[in-house]
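hiii, so i know i said id send this last week but things got crazy w the move. better late than never?? heres the sequnce for the chain we talked about at the cafe, plus the structure i predicted for it. fair warning i was half asleep when i ran it
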Amino acid sequence: MAIHATTIFAIQHKGQSAMSGDGQVTLGNQVVMKHTAKKVRRLFGGQVVAGFAGSVADAFTLFEKFEAKLEMYNGNLQRAAVELAKEWRGDKMLRQLEAMLLVMNKDTLLLVSGTGEVIEPDDGILAIGSGGNYALAAGRALKKFSGDALSAEQIAHAALETAADICVFTNHNIILEAIDHDERNNA
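okay and structure toks below
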């Protein structure tokens, strides 16, 4: 039986990038195994934020590989994501991994999948996982109708709260990481 972790939301809005994820890990479709998993993390000296949805062990493998690619390409997010997607799709063993990644820095937001996809959204919003569509819909509505009233962090948090209210595989233990676009290297 597979252990899964779900619902990551990311947004670029008003000079800020923010990513949120819930803490629930489920075993199959019936048992909650953990409530406080950290599925959103800072990488590359805090300059990159990454989040995963899918099988936990698979996601950790991808985090390690993505972080190695970031180091290899000196923090170039697009290049690291493309190289990870190529390796993921081309390697027989990696192709079996059941997870997806959202990765962002101050300039770029990308979805990376095992089918070789590296997708940059048109509207600066992405979401993955079982509650991803709920979070995506909430986030798009909040961004569209809040104008400048809400920050990227506020939208990311509210979108995850909405998903947690609807999706049984998403909880309210929300981890949120943000990058201001004028933020300098923290390393």
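btw The chain has four helices and twelve strands. thought thatd interest u
miss u guys!!
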